[in-house]
Amino acid sequence: MNIGDTAKLNTNPEDSPETTLRLFVYGTLKRGYWNHQRFCAQARSVEPAVVWGRLYHLHAGFPALEVPEGLILSQGTADPLADARRQQEIDIPRFGRPTGDWDLIHGELVTFTDPQRDLLPIDRLEGFRPGGHSMYQRVMVAVLCKRTSIPAWTYLMPCPSYAERVASGEWLRP
């Protein structure tokens, strides 16, 4: 083994930006809700954040989010590491109010350091199946966190006609 190999062994994967994945959550994955501990306990950080969109409460007891088509920066894939790398390649998006009837949606920005371990179970929870029938779609959008616009993944769902719009932009425990 040479010196370069030793350095590679001592590198902390959390220091590598391509293994960092940010996810905007707005419902049951938020702190204090029933899916947070199971799916987000291993997160490096969780911070308040906002996105532009429309939030709906579904009769099943969880929310759905719509965002303007023009704000989608990328579509999620079945490869969490490729999606983490894609997130690093995106130019810092502008966070401006879109045209139309859109609200600021309040949620949390969750930062994970092992997308392979952390994202796949959440994709399963959200029914995200790239290339197949999905309950939610995972897309990248501009997220405002600490007055800084950054790209992050989130889950969208075309809103069913029976859903109730959440005018406050913040989904609270039913």
Summarize the structure.
The chain is α+β, with helices and mostly antiparallel strands. It is built from four helices and eight strands, in the order H-E-H-E-E-E-H-E-H-E-E-E.
Please characterize this protein's 3D structure:
By secondary structure, this protein is an alpha+beta fold. The protein has a single domain, classed as Gamma-glutamyl cyclotransferase-like (Hypothetical upf0131 protein ytfp, Roll), CATH 3.10.490.10. It is 19% helix and 31% strand. The longest helix is centred in the C-terminal third of the chain and has 11 residues. It starts with a helix and ends in a 9-residue tail after the last strand. The N terminus is likely disordered.
Q: What is the count of DSSP helices, taking H or I runs of 4+ residues?
A: 4
* Main structural class: alpha+beta
The overall pLDDT average reads 86
N/C terminus separation: 57 Å
Q: How do the helices and strands follow one another from N- to C-terminus? A: HEHEEEHEHEEE
Major beta sheet summary: 5 strands, antiparallel
CATH architect. name: Roll
How many distinct beta strands? 8
| Low-pLDDT regions | 1-15
CATH-defined fold name: Hypothetical upf0131 protein ytfp
List the SSEs and their pairings:
Elements: H1 3-9, E1 21-25, H2 36-40, E2 45-57, E3 63-66, E4 74-75, H3 80-89, E5 103-112, H4 115-125, E6 137-145, E7 148-156, E8 164-165
Antiparallel strand pairs: 1-5, 2-3, 2-5, 2-8, 4-6, 6-7
What are the salient characteristics of this protein?
174 residues, alpha+beta, Hypothetical upf0131 protein ytfp, five-stranded antiparallel beta sheet, three-stranded antiparallel beta sheet, 19% helix, globular
